Fold each of these.
Amino acid sequence: MLVDLHMHSNRSDGALPPRALVELAHRNGVTLMSLTDHDTMEGVGEARTVARELGIEFISGVEISSRWGGRGIHVVGLGLDETREDVTAFFDSVALRRDRRGREMNACFEKLGIRGAYEGALALAGNKSILSRTHFALWLLNEGWVKNYQDAFDKYLRPGAPCSVDVDWPTVEESVRFIREKGGLAVLAHPGRYHFSSDWMVEELLKHFKAVGGEAIEVCSGSQSRSDDVRFAALAQSMGFLASSGSDWHSDRSSRPKPGEQPQLPEGVVPVWTRFGF
Ligand code: AMP
Ligand code: MN
Ligand code: MN
Ligand code: MN
């Protein structure tokens, strides 16, 4: 079994439509996958249909932007029913907050003499519900305001940069509670990527995540280092978390592993997909 439980389509900030993404995963040999777009499950229906056509096992997913300890923390929800109205309502509310942030960022760009950022980013987002910093970065690049995609984050968008605007994301506790109430399972995404000022902070985050009902962590992620994978495999075992593995692939803009190319789980951890009967 080749597993990838974390990837993005163009329903959030990935490059490929759900169909093409699942086809890519299939070409790469993935046999069990989840689509985990940021704060939306709009692509899940299409992805599931294509996965079925191609004989890939599929678990519904989403990556919920959350906050804890003054940081943006990502919580993956697996197994949610994307057709439930009380599920879509949660994401509609986050979409409004994203839109509000987009307008505030636009005001900031205008002060710097950069006009049309909001309209431009929205057009790249396909006028859909998830307006991401990725769309602003791509627009800045297309318009020649930055020399490459990464430069957009470094110059304008990363926390602390001039046009970084905070969003009132749900807390980690709220996201986990939402996932559990709707019958899903909460996975802490890429625990190695939060770059806390002290090392012990991430263990505090894991303890908090566990205390509020989180059940799994990404032990292997395309968006963290191989030494992180080793560290979090040990923590999953000692703290009693189920383990997940995902590429976190968005597009060829970054050199991250493509779907299915991230490391698979090491021996000794309990795979999260056992809870879904795989
Ligand atoms: P948002 O959820 O709208 O705040 O956008 C965050 C997205 O931007 C992430 O999911 C990444 O895909 C991308 N991103 C965030 N920080 C960086 C960074 N420093 N460099 C490149 N991409 C980033
Ligand atoms: Mn992203
Ligand atoms: Mn993430
Ligand atoms: Mn992701």
Amino acid sequence: MNRVYNFSPGPSMLPDAVLEKARDSLLNWNNTGMSVMEISHRGKDFAAVAQSFEGRLRRLLAIPENYRVLYLSGGATGQFAAVALNLGRPGKHAEYLISGQWGKKAVAEAAQFTDVRTVADTFAQLRAPVAEDINLSGEASYVHYTHNETIIGVEYQTVPETGAVPLVGDFSSTLLSRPVPISRYGAIYACTQKNIGAAGTAVVIVREDLIKDKPKAVPSIFDWTVQDGQQSMYNTPATFNWYLSELVLEWIEDQGGLEVMAEHNQAKASALYDYIDDSQWYRNPIDKQSRSWMNVPFTLPDDSLDARFLGEAEQAGLANLKGHRSIGGMRASIYNSMPMAGVQALIDFMRDFAQRNG
Ligand code: PMP
């Protein structure tokens, strides 16, 4: 069966080269006579995978020495709780900026474990907060925001300024799409099923002074101090995911790194937004300063055309364009693995569909 252009928001498209390499190594990986799933996470073969993953991530993101890298189970949702448990402090509150559904979910989860205050909320305006929207006390244990809101396609183009208070970013649907100034952050985390591999796991990058003193009882698999001390192997880690992520990072390095990814991603997003705006038939409602490079939602003039659009797109090899159930319409997720040819095929299809139905 032919591969299609998969516009899913996650789990999302992986590079063919990664899938082929994983397939070819299934029965006899690294001359072990076993697959990577069948070997001990404590053996030297897997240790090499974990080390290579961390080395590549450090190179790609230019992660400073004083930051730790963790590879944990439980996805980004697990980290909604882990952030509050590891960085919340007794007698202090945490501050959250909201620009969409995922930020709200992060607040609801964190509020179970620490005192949470929302200090900006621009969700209804379909844009990311700017300095004037944000009301920081300067006394929070940390400030949390969602760098890219996957459902509505709202992405920050700058880093919020929080002074001495550690900034924590949910980078689930944007990490590895472009360079990130890591030293501006206390911690960032991302689920792996968009730009980093398969679902069910998360990458955490945290400044080491923030996890020196274990704050209180934290479930061990979510305890950043414990997991850091055990090289993310306090529990048996998701070895196949980790291996796949290592292959994805190798692929990104082969492409030329994050500057090159950023150029590709910006070019893809611009082509699609420009077509949508020029068409005067399709519409993207997001503030132009906050439009996501990764997730591009759009509507047709009449939602009674949606089912036909999706059916014909599927026939044309353009899969998973249905928008999130909470907002309807369409959404094209165009992560690192989506080639420009896929975006061009989508634009050609959209143009043809508009001509036939407009
Ligand atoms: N945050 C953001 C921005 C996301 O896009 C997602 C998943 N789509 C999550 C958090 C939750 O990730 P997971 O389902 O892996 O827990």
Amino acid sequence: MTRPDEQTGRYGDVRDDIDHIVVDRGRIAERVDGIADEIASCYPSGRELTIVAVLTGSLIFLADLIRCLPIRMRLDVVSVSSYPGDATEARELQWRLPITADLKGRDVLIVDDVLDTGQTLRALLSSVRSHRPASVRSCVLLRKPAPGPEERPVPDFVGFDIASEFVVGYGLDFDHLYRNLPEISVLARHARRPAE
Ligand code: IMP
Ligand code: MG
């Protein structure tokens, strides 16, 4: 094991910043296949699907998922964030890239990484619905327990239900780092403070 950087407290190898793996590569691959089957069975053949994916956290999941989906589909990406910078607590929602695809009369599937408070998915559902699509469904890779009594939107497809811990990897970040880790993991304590 290498020594941590004196200023940031982080190790050079991202794997040394991981406390434990929550979902390994094998389980991810198997479940992504399963979700793709569930999704494909909901859309009759001959209809085109429009996926609206939320950057940046869903990027790796999206790439794996759409390659398992043998249906005709279009792809639009939006960017909306409730975790600016290094914060691990929900903040105000920021739209960085709005919907650009024509969704009117289309079958839309929203793809996001994590359902936590439900704020992001609620905002997306309402934005997508304002385009008058034929149908709207949603898919999240991870669902955490509801943090409070407020109602959350119910996703149609869920990869894994996990504990309410902050996780990184497989597209998910902490302070813009760790998206490239192939597993979904909990960060070690020394890595949870922001870089100077
Ligand atoms: P919500 O709006 O509170 O449901 O939060 C969902 C968004 O927060 C997700 O799209 C993620 O970008 C981010 N998020 C929530 N939990 C985590 C986590 O454990 N790791 C990384 N990002 C997270
Ligand atoms: Mg997100």
Amino acid sequence: MKRKCLLIFLMMIGMAVPGCTQKTEETKDITVSNLEEQEPVSQEVFAMDTYMTVTAYGENAEEVVDQSIAEIERLDQLLTATADTGEVYNVNRNGGGNLSEDSMYLMERSLELYQDTEGAFNVTIFPVMEAWGFVSDEFAVPSTEELQKKLALVNIDDLKINWEDSSVDFLEKGMAIDFGGIAKGYTSTKIADIFRNAGVENGLINLGGNVHVVGTKTDGTKWRVGVQSPGDEEAYIGVLSVADCAVITSGGYERYFEEEGITYHHIIDPSTGYPANNGLISVTIVSKDGTLADGLSTSLYIMGLDRAKEFWQNHSDEFDAILLTEDDKLFVTEGLVDDFTSELEINVIEKEK
Ligand code: AMP
Ligand code: MG
């Protein structure tokens, strides 16, 4: 079992700060003092099962970082499916119930993703996550019988949404929802909104390796965000130069266990109930819309290269992507060619002519 460790995200922050020269020790400080106007204010928090860092520059930076941390903690408590602080936990336990505006929005986006991805993204995946032990951390390969039973509960048609009174009903006993595939992207988008509403024009939101950059660096140049290598926590597939967007990566390496020499990870293919095994080992999505980026990083990972390529060709105005296959072939969509550098050979995915 391995999770993204503190070091990785500090490295990512290290790559993303101006000039990339900030020392790790400095980024570890909970609050960096705001002596000069352009000095960053940064805070760190452990939420949604990962280390997160929010960094803002300029006037109002301190206030905005405080608000952002409070918002992360609020959403963490609300959206968790594993602690009774949250409404997701409660609707799962009770077979339905009321949901807040945040959860209803995520439900709407989840249904949209289900349609668009032809079922690769399925918010009712929770019973299968549970069967593999990803909810309790008591990992085990379920029997075929158990898995089929749980998979039968993964069914969007049995999810009854009452949009007027903001509630949900599960038509089958044992059904449950899981926003784990989109919660971080949604959170980073909400934080980027907090920044903009307060007039903070430069910042960096790093939610456990899922990055959302606000504006540019203070010198007007783009942020540099490293895309982690699946095989080596300290290496990068390549580096992206970006402004004002989310950069969100999914990979089986982020959460997995091993049994009898086989690795089982946390991104489940709803057509089988097994961890997705369609040839991709890392998918990064770049989009202005963090919720979409998060949902699609999970979905394209499940789709595999050919379906993912085709999906992008049909949605190229909404996002760009970096895809790494298990035999180390790197594919980058046309929109990123000028903004992505890598030591690997880059295969460009072009829009269909
Ligand atoms: P990510 O790291 O964004 O790819 O999200 C992985 C998380 O999404 C898992 O830990 C589950 O909570 C959830 N998940 C796994 N498989 C699916 C799926 N097929 N559709 C929707 N959510 C999923
Ligand atoms: Mg995701």
